[in-house]
Write a structure and sequence with these properties.
InterPro entries: MepB-like, MepB-like_sf
Largest sheet: 6 strands, mixed
Protein name: MepB family protein
Order of helices and strands: HEEEEEEEEEHEHEH
CATH topology: Trna Endonuclease, Chain: A, domain 1
Shape: globular
Strand order of the largest sheet: 1-2-3-8-9-11
CATH superfamily: MepB-like
Organism: Staphylococcus marylandisciuri
Pfam family, one: MepB-like
Strand content: 25-35%
């Protein structure tokens, strides 16, 4: 397996700018290899990371995240077993950013399985630079924006730190 995911380099360098901590317990998620899936720990918090892909026909970026059940079927992540945070990395030429979603928000929005929702195995994310969206996508972008940091140039470390560590 390739340990040189570009998204791992992005996550590591981002964390290095806001703390002196290093990623521990790094593990590649072979099931989500196409999306550079991996998990790690940082200061007692657990993280799941994915690299989103730009799609030619729809605005925003697409990312898949799923696991296998006992019957080897693909199923959504579950609130009780998912890591504390889901990082979705965007690397699109000069446009670079990260969504850092806490699992309680993913539960609230029906992205992961809980007693309220069956969950999803993929989603579309809309960084701040994506515009001219339809009404549904605008609504999604609105709630996602609180968890997004544009890393393309200078970025707001004060916004980034709490997304990782709170």
């Amino acid at each position: 397996m390739n340990n040189t995911y570009i998204s791992k380099k992005l996550v590591s360098s981002t964390i290095n700018t806001i703390s002196n901590l290093a990623l521990t317990n790094f593990k590649i998620d072979n099931l989500n290899f196409d999306y550079e899936g991996f998990t790690f720990e940082l200061d007692k918090l657990t993280f799941k990371s994915r690299l989103a892909k730009k799609t030619p026909k729809k605005k925003g970026y697409f990312v898949a995240f799923w696991q296998k059940n006992e019957s080897n079927e693909n199923i959504p992540f579950d609130y009780d077993t998912i890591e504390d945070k889901l990082i979705i990395n965007i690397i699109d030429n000069e446009k670079i950013g990260q969504f850092i979603f806490p699992k309680n928000i993913l539960k609230e929005k029906g992205v992961i399985t809980s007693n309220k929702s069956k969950g999803k195995m993929a989603m579309r994310v809309y960084p701040s630079w994506v515009s001219n969206l339809n009404t549904t996508a605008k609504g999604t972008q609105r709630w996602q924006t609180k968890y997004f940091v544009d890393l393309s140039n200078d970025f707001n470390q004060e916004k980034l730190y709490p997304l990782y560590f709170r």
